[in-house]
Amino acid sequence: MIDWIKQLPGNVIDFIGPEIIIATAKVVLVFGVLLVTTLLVIWFERRVIADMQARVGPNRWGPFGLFQTLADGIKLFFKEDFRPAAADRWTFVIAPVMAMVPAFLAFAVVPLGDHVVIAGHRVDLVMSDLNIGILYFLAVGSLGVYGVVLAGWASGSKYPLIGSIRSTAQMISYEIALGLSLVPIALVAGSLSTVDIVAAQAGTYDNIVLFGRDLNFLEGIIPHWFIVQQWPAFLIFLVAGIAETNRAPFDLPEAETELVAGYHTEYSGIRFAMFFLGEYVHVVAISAMAATLFFGGWHGWNPAFPAAIDWLRWIVPIFWFTIKTVAFVYLFVWLRATLPRLRYDRLMWVGWKRLIPGALVWIVVTAVLNSDPEEVPTSARLWVMAVVFAILLAWVWRGDPRLTALEPWRKKEVTRGTA
Amino acid sequence: MDVAVFVAVFVLALGSSLAMLFARNAVHVALFLVAGQVALAVAFLLQGAFFVAAVQVIVYAGAIMVLFLFVIMLLGVDQREALIEPLPGQRPLAIGLGALLVLEILYASMRGLDLASASPEGSAALARLNADPGNVEALARLLFSDFLLPFEVTSVLLVAAIVGVMALARRMGGPLTASERSDRAEEVAA
User: Fold this and answer.
1) Could you read off the pLDDT of A285-298 as tens digits, one per residue?
2) Residue A275 has what pLDDT?
3) Is A122 or A158 the better-scoring residue by pLDDT?
4) pLDDT tens per residue, range A50-83
5) Can you give the C-alpha Rg of chain B in angstroms?
6) A139, A153, A161 member nearest B54 (Cβ)
7) Among A139, A172, A192, whose Cβ lies nearest the Cβ of B57?
8) Helix/strand/coil (H, E, C) string of chain B?
9) Which residue in A307, A61, A318, A359 sits closest to A186, CA to CA?
10) Are the beta carbons of A335 and A45 closer than 8 angstroms?
11) Chain A residues with CB inside 8 Å of B73's CB?
12) Pairwise CA distance, residues B43 & B23, whole Å
């Protein structure tokens, strides 16, 4: 009997199977880390924006105000859970969950590092290496629309409904651009799996020959990240990604100057906290995806370094990944502090008439440049990129005369001129 | 493990489909349909068809159903639908065809028919699809080599349908109808 108890842990592991235990541990760990990350990201955003606006920001709770979000969370927990009389009961309850869950799910395909060996079992530092990683990310993202849409509809009041109709149109439009911006990545990496995509970004550019000149000094300096050759796709991904998270300058669904608080006007207490959590996890998810797909994922600047010390081998990749993700979170915050909200017709214009055609053109260019890697020399690639860049810039910069003609002050000017 | 997931998926898919049939509210119907589609996507995952699962979620749950919801919300069709049948004789026809379909499925499952591998050609194609590089690569290769023409024709058909709808829905320069006139008046008033 006592022997049996002593062997219990081993028996349990044998019974359940190490794979399932490892998978469960990964899920719990990532979930917990994301919750803590959200607390920190909200604090980070408030401090950074405060700094940009020459304020102090939250500094009362804990060192540098670190526990402010925790205090806010506890407060939200104990607030009254109010449900308006006109609300659709179950949809109103489900909507915040639908907003939160897809954001967490996106992390299943984000590789946080290489692999670790624990008790003889190889543990990859990714929850699941799906062979359709990118598609999974898009699929989960497309489910994220439901939270906002249902919240607006179920509240049974007009501002949330307007907010949710706006966000439906916005998220569907930008989802297309987001999907198209990932096609060139799949073309270059030759795989849809995020693990393979990160693996394809290992190392540095060697033998750089530009216009017949051998640039030796650059050897081993420029990392083989996809941002180097795929920056137009990255720009499209970034814009569409920000639009997907419903954050400034694309925060029309919750435009507080027009719609009170948009789709979550009627939400309070813990349900509002869920929307908040979902939004910030989504921001971290898009940042992590940007780092993974375009900035080499967990690959550091110098890949030879971590091999020196054993425990550094798995700590350093996680460090690099975190640094890159935090950099993108900072970008998100920076944009929010800087840019004013887009007008609705301009939002649609950017999405449909610039991002989507731009992404399609870039897919064709990438396909042609990568049809035979030996054939196309680097200088030709650079020329093509320069030309594409010039055309894209001119094309976006010129804008649309019909749009500017709609602006009220222009109209006034025109009528004054003719009168 | 697989069995447990299968049972959960089965219950979820069947339950949400039934709930979809009996729900009164148009938005709830759409939601139950989404739940059913996601459950089916998990069923595809269980079969190792990752690509089909992802496409199922992206296209059906993520795009088409969101558009459905958008239209429902925009037009405000969330009231109880009128109980008038737009097509006479639709109900007996639906029951008859539905019964036929149930019989077919029962027959196929009772006989243990494996539809994909029923013919040697089909099983060979299936084996090729699931061969080494994985079914995503194999599917892509087939789609863009042997089946390129049908694939392209289908996409042209879809584009033609979209252009056709836009041509039909576009208002020509004729006089406005009464509802359009009131819309205009509201716009001006606003």
Assistant:
1) 999 999 988 888 78
2) 86
3) A158
4) 888 888 888 888 788 888 888 888 888 888 878 7
5) 22
6) A139
7) A139
8) CHHHHHHHHHHHHHHHHHHHHHCCCHHHHHHHHHHHHHHHHHHHHHCCCHHHHHHHHHHHHHHHHHHHHHHHHHHCCCCCCCCCCCCCCHHHHHHHHHHHHHHHHHHHHHCCCCCCCCCHHHHHHHHHHCCCCCHHHHHHHHHCCCCHHHHHHHHHHHHHHHHHHHHHHCCCCCCCCHHHHHHHHHHHHC
9) A359
10) no
11) 149, 152-153, 161, 164-165, 168
12) 24
CB contact under 8 A, B67 and A172: yes
Report how many domains make up chain B: 2
Cross-chain Cβ contact A143/B1 below 8 Å = no
Q: Which of B84, B101, B135 finishes a domain?
A: B84
Distance from CA of A116 to the nearest CA of B (A): 26
Residues A379 and A401 in one domain: yes
Q: Minimal Cα–Cα distance from A418 to chain B, Å? A: 22
User: Are A398 and A337 within one domain?
Assistant: no
Q: Is the peptide bond before A232 cis (omega within 30 degrees of 0)?
A: no
Residues B77 and B1 in one domain: yes
- Closest residue by Cα to residue A289 from A108, A32, A78: A108
Its ipTM equals 0.73
Q: Do A180 and A248 lie in a common domain?
A: yes
User: Which stretch of DSSP H or E encloses residue A224?
Assistant: none
Of the candidates B50, B69, B84, which is a domain's last residue?
A: B84
B121 in any annotated domain: no
Same domain, A339 and A410: no
Q: Could you give the number of structural domains in chain A?
A: 2
| Spatial separation of the C-alpha atoms in residues B75 and B72, rounded to whole Å | 5
CA distances from A247 to A169, A178, A276, A283, B101 (A): 15, 15, 11, 9, 48
Give a three-class secondary structure readout of A178-202: HHHHHHHHHHHHCCCCHHHHHHCCC
